[in-house]
Amino acid sequence: MKTRKNILTLWVCIGSILALSGCAPKVYQLKPVSGDVALIDGRPTTKAEKDGIVVVASYERLDLQYVALDVEIKNRTDRPFDVNPADFEYTALDEEQHTVFRTTSSPQKPLMFSAADPVHEADRTVYNQEREVKRLKTAKIINTVLLVAAVASDVASSSSRNNQRPERWAQNRITHNNLYSAIQAKRIIDHGMFADRMQRYDYEAYRWKELALKPTTIQPGESVRGLVYLPMSRDARHMLVNYPVSDYESIMITFQQEWVKAEKQRK
Q1: Would you list the DSSP string of 86-148?
Q2: What is the pLDDT of residues 58-75, one digit of tens each?
Q3: Residues 50, 250: contact at Cβ < 8 Å?
Q4: Confidence of residue 267 (pLDDT cuts 50, 70, 90)
Q5: Rounded (to 5) percent helix, strand, coil in the chain
Q6: How far apart are CA 237 and CA 100, in angstroms?
Q7: Most exposed: 22, 33, 84, 93, by fewest CB within 10 Å?
C-alpha cells in the first residue's frame, strides 16, 4: 500500500514537471502595421514620409521600462531640419485601435506618451551617480561610528567587575560579536547596493550618450539614426507613434504590440 502511494506521488511529480515544461514563456513583440513595411535584415521595418521628411523605424528591444525603436530620419527637403527625439510620442490603442487612455482634464483628448529626452536623462544619470557616491560616503561614516561605539562598549563591559563571572563574560562576548557581525553585514550590503546601482547608472549613461538619437540639425540630403525610447504601456495593443515635421503636419506610424509564446528551438 505504501509502495503504491509512493509510485502515485512520483507520477504526480512527473506530470507536474511535464506540465510546467510545456508552458513556454511569453516574449514581447512589436511590429509596424502601417506605412511601407518591408523585412530588412530579418526585421519588420516601416517607412513613412511627410513634406520631404522620411522616418524609417523598426523595433529594437525592450530596455528596462522603455520600448526602444531604431529610427532613421532623412531630410529630402531643400532646408535644414531640426531633429528632437523627445518630440516622438504615441497614443495607446486597443485591439480595435480605439484610444485606451484619456486625459483627466479633457476626457475627449487622448493621453500621449512622450519619448525620453536623452539630454535630460543623461544629466539625471550623472546626478544619480553623484548621489550614490555621497550615499556610500555617508554609509561609511555611519559604519565607522557604529564600530567605534561597539568597541567602546565592548571595552567598557569587559573591564567591568560585574562581567568577570564566566556566564556574564560569555554573554558579553556573544552580544558584541553579534554587533560586529551586524556592522560587517551592513558594510557588505552598502557596498553591494552601491555596485549594483552604479552598474545600472553606467549602462544608462552609455544608453543616453551612445545609443539614443540625439537632438541635431540635418541638412538637405542628410540623415541621422539612433534609438528612440518610448515608455512602455502593457495595456496597449497598438501604439500610434507621432512625430511632427512642421507646425501642422506629423508623420504617423502604427505598431502592433503583443506577448507571444516563445517558439522552442529545434535541435
Answers
A1: GG-EEEEE-TT--BS-B-SS-TTSBPEEEPP-HHHHHHHHHHHHHHHHHHHHHHHHHHHHHHH
A2: 999 998 889 999 999 999
A3: yes
A4: very low
A5: 45, 35, 25
A6: 9
A7: 22
Q: Residue 128 corresponds to which cell in the numbers above?
A: 544619480
Cell of 242: 507621432
**Whole-number Å distance between alpha carbons of 147 and 181:** 10
Joined grid coordinates for residue 82 = 531640426
pLDDT tens readout for residues 141-175: 998 888 888 788 777 776 665 656 666 667 767 77
Closest CA to 129 of 200, 192, 189: 200
Does 9 have pLDDT greater than 70?
A: no
Number of H helices, E strands in the chain: 3, 12
